[in-house]
Design a protein that fits this description.
The protein has 137 residues and is an alpha/beta fold. Helices cover 48% and strands 20% of the residues. It has helices at residues 19-31, 43-49, 53-61, 70-80, 89-100, 114-127, and strands at 5-9, 12-16, 38-41, 64-67, 106-109, 132-136. The two termini are 30 Å apart.
Length: 137
């Protein structure tokens, strides 16, 4: 089980680590049935949360908040005295799918339109032929 290092960035607890470690943590969470949800937070999200109680609550209740912005990753790493990377949502998704193939992890894709989801599924399956995508919504 990967260790999960976090650090506060303007009162928001953020993940500290690499993209590879983040993907391993997500896959581990799924395989152990931990449940919950993860958020991706850039500077706009972290600063908006300071004045939006609902957003701040959503971030606090998340299983993990990944730093989807270089400034957030930098500050989290500096606070934790550790190395931290920006964890972009699209890169995390691909890394989780790649890592999840080792254990047969299943994926369900949520998106804006059926056409977008179908293109995403097609792209992911071309990159990761063994990926188990079980649904689209």
């Amino acid at each position: 089980m990967p260790s999960e290092v976090t650090a506060a960035v303007l009162g928001v607890t953020c993940y500290v680590g690499s993209l590879e470690q983040a993907a391993e943590a997500v896959v581990d969470r799924a395989l152990t049935g931990g449940g919950g949800y993860a958020c991706l937070a850039n500077v706009h999200v972290v600063t908006t949360a300071q004045n939006q109680p609902a957003l701040k609550q959503a971030l606090h209740q998340a299983w993990m908040v990944f730093p989807d912005g270089a400034p957030v990753a930098w500050l989290a790493g500096r606070t934790a005295k550790s190395s931290s990377e920006r964890i972009a949502g699209s890169e995390l998704m691909e890394s989780v799918i790649a890592e999840g193939q080792k254990s047969g992890l299943r994926h369900f894709l949520f998106g804006s339109t059926p056409e977008v989801l179908e293109k995403l599924e097609e792209r992911l399956l071309s990159l990761y032929p063994g990926a188990r995508i079980v649904g689209l919504l």
